[in-house]
Each structure stands twice: as C-alpha cells, then as structure tokens.
Design a protein that fits this description.
One of its GO terms (biological process) is response to amino acid. Keywords: DNA-binding, Transcription, Transcription regulation. The chain is an alpha+beta fold and 150 residues long. The chain folds into two domains: 42 residues, Arc Repressor Mutant, subunit A (Orthogonal Bundle), CATH 1.10.10; 83 residues, Alpha-Beta Plaits (2-Layer Sandwich), CATH 3.30.70. 37% of the residues lie in helices and 20% in strands. The protein contains five helices and four strands, in the order αααβαββαβ. The chain has a four-stranded antiparallel β-sheet. 13% of the residues are buried.
Length: 150
C-alpha cells in the first residue's frame, strides 16, 4: 500500500459517497487508475464495506453502556460459544476479548437504563458461560470515530 492508496482510503473513510471524480482530483490520477486502486483495496480486504453513519440519538438510542463480562470458564469451546451468541444481540455494538479482571468488554446501546436492564435480564445473563457482569454507563460521548489514523 503506497501513499496514494492511503490518500484514497482517507477520502473514502471521511465520505463513503465521494465520487471517483473527486478522488481523482485529490490524488492527481485519472478515473481508471483510481477505480482500479479502489477495486484492489476492496478485493484485498483493506476496504471492508461502505457504510452510512446514523445518529443513534435520532433513533432514540440515548444510553451507552460498557459491560464487563466474566465467564465461568475460558476454554476454547466456551469462548467460541460466547462470541457466537454475542454476535446475535443487536444492542451489542462492539465486543472485545480482554486481559485483566474480566474476559470481555461489550459496548451496548439502548434507549434507556430500563432498556439496558431488559437486555441484561433477557439476553446478557443467558449468554453461554456467563458468570459476572459489571456495567458502566457513559454520561456523555466526548469522541466517537470509526476513522482509522491513516
């Protein structure tokens, strides 16, 4: 990946709807080489997709919770079963395997604290090998970005 590829990625990352023409102007290449580079970046997996960023609050999803999960066991089967189940819960936006006192950190987005309580009771405590939960509710969002430092 060269400097031009990185410039293209920066442009697409900031606006997935940007035209090939505008990218071409920005990187000083004609349309065809830019299109080929984007195609190559997509096929190589550097570009995973193009997304529309939606304001969660516009959908009434006012509360963000960071849930630290401890499992009852940490063998490979338990981890795979837990991770598979987490992927099927739409309120869980992100899931990270962690070192330290808990095994996983989940980012959960819900309309309200009551909505989070329902997610706990109906979904989280029923995850395979669930043992313990610690929840931290975000007061406000200072910075949120999916833009990578290219």
């Amino acid at each position: 990946m060269d400097a031009v590829d990185r410039a293209i990625l920066r442009l697409l990352q900031s606006d997935a709807t940007i035209s090939i023409e505008k990218i071409s102007q920005a990187v000083s290449l004609s349309h065809t080489p830019v299109w080929r580079r984007i195609d190559r970046l997509e096929k190589s997996g550097a570009i995973l997709g193009r997304f529309c960023k939606i304001d969660r609050k516009a959908l009434g999803l006012e509360v963000t919770v960071f849930a630290s999960i401890k499992l009852s066991r940490q063998d490979e089967t338990a981890l795979v079963e837990f991770e598979t189940a987490v992927r099927n819960i739409p309120e869980i936006m992100d899931c990270y395997s962690m070192t330290g006192s808990h095994d996983y950190l989940l980012k959960v987005v819900v309309p309200s604290v009551e909505g989070y309580e329902a997610v706990i009771k109906k979904k989280i405590v029923h995850l395979p090998h669930f043992r313990d939960l610690r929840s931290d509710i975000a007061l406000r969002e200072i910075k949120q970005t999916d833009a990578l430092p290219i």
